[in-house]
């Protein structure tokens, strides 16, 4: 088992080395994005239902659910629930959007390295140019993969949040 983990670590280190320093930035943004998305999934599945049940119980305990004041209270509770559900979603969507940009930063830095090799050694040293090309393509690929995973799961998360909010709205009847 330990040998297997060492092999995996060596593969990750080799991949990160072939992509340059920008690949570490992509990894950090990806890690932060996934921590925030997992926190939102946790909130949506375990915390939010309890809060929604408390709101429903408070609404059902009200004697007045038809007056103008009751409607404003219902709207305030719905607004608070929506705000709690959508917390940190803007950060997640921003991180998803910047992943490809960070990958493009890696492309630029890799191509600068290729041009440096060409300026010093000429175009005859293909091996040295290959390292720069690798540093140009790896971060771009990693940034796109990170963004695609983030788009897929943040969209699913957003849809689940909307469904949860609609269920809460349907549980608070007003006449």
UniProtKB/TrEMBL annotation:
Transmembrane intervals: 22-43, 90-112, 132-153
GO cellular component: plasma membrane
Cellular location(s): Cell membrane; Membrane
A Pfam family matched in the record: MotA_ExbB
InterPro entries (alphabetical): ExbB/TolQ_transport, MotA_ExbB_proton_chnl
Entry's family note: Belongs to the exbB/tolQ family.
Protein name listed in UniProt: TonB2 energy transduction system inner membrane component ExbB
Organism: Shewanella gelidii
Gene giving rise to this polypeptide: exbB
């Amino acid at each position: 088992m330990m040998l297997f983990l060492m092999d995996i670590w060596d593969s990750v280190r080799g991949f990160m080395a072939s992509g340059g320093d920008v690949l570490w930035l992509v990894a950090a943004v990806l890690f932060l994005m996934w921590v925030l998305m997992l926190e939102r999934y946790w909130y949506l599945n375990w915390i939010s239902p309890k809060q929604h049940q408390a709101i429903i119980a408070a609404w059902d305990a009200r004697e007045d659910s038809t007056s103008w004041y009751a409607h404003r209270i219902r709207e305030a509770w719905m607004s608070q629930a929506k705000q709690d559900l959508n917390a940190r979603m803007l950060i997640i969507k921003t991180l998803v959007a910047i992943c490809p940009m960070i990958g493009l930063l890696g492309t630029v830095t890799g191509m600068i390295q290729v041009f440096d090799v060409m300026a010093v050694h000429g175009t005859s040293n293909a091996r040295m140019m290959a390292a720069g090309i690798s540093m140009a393509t790896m971060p771009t690929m990693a940034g796109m993969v990170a963004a695609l995973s983030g788009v897929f799961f943040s969209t699913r998360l957003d849809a689940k949040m909307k469904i949860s909010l609609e269920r809460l709205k349907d549980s608070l009847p007003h006449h």
